[in-house]
Amino acid sequence: MTAYVPPGWPSGVHPPGTERFEDTAVAWLFDLVPPEYRRYGVLRRYPTVLSRMARHHVAADLEAAREGFRTARAELADTVPAHGLEGVLEIYRREGTRLAAMARAVELVDAGLRGGSFTPKL
Predict the structure, then answer these.
(1) How confident is the model at residue 122 (pLDDT cuts 50, 70, 90)?
(2) Residue 15, SS3 per DSSP
(3) Residues 80-97, buried b or exposed e (16+ Cβ, 10 A)?
(4) Which of 38, 84, 91, 99 pairs with 45 at a CA distance of 20 to 30 A?
């Protein structure tokens, strides 16, 4: 029987309670934060600290994408033609969707690192 993980669980991260869960979670989380974070041993020793930092980092990226979307028309109207501006807005839409899903995935991994378990909904 395979372990259940909820929708949005990141691929490549083993489910909580399985072999190598913590190792795969830490590797995935390190991919979400600036590479310099790998220098700090405390983040490897305490994966919940790393997940906290990843949560904040992804949330800041998501907020930046939202702010960029909100202000793009006003800030770029004089320098980018309308079709280019539509392309910029589409990038913000796609990245916003991707970052929101990533934020949810970080929350799920964080819950797993904190001992949470997931039960399938019937």
Answers:
(1) low
(2) coil
(3) eeeeebeebeeebeebbe
(4) 99
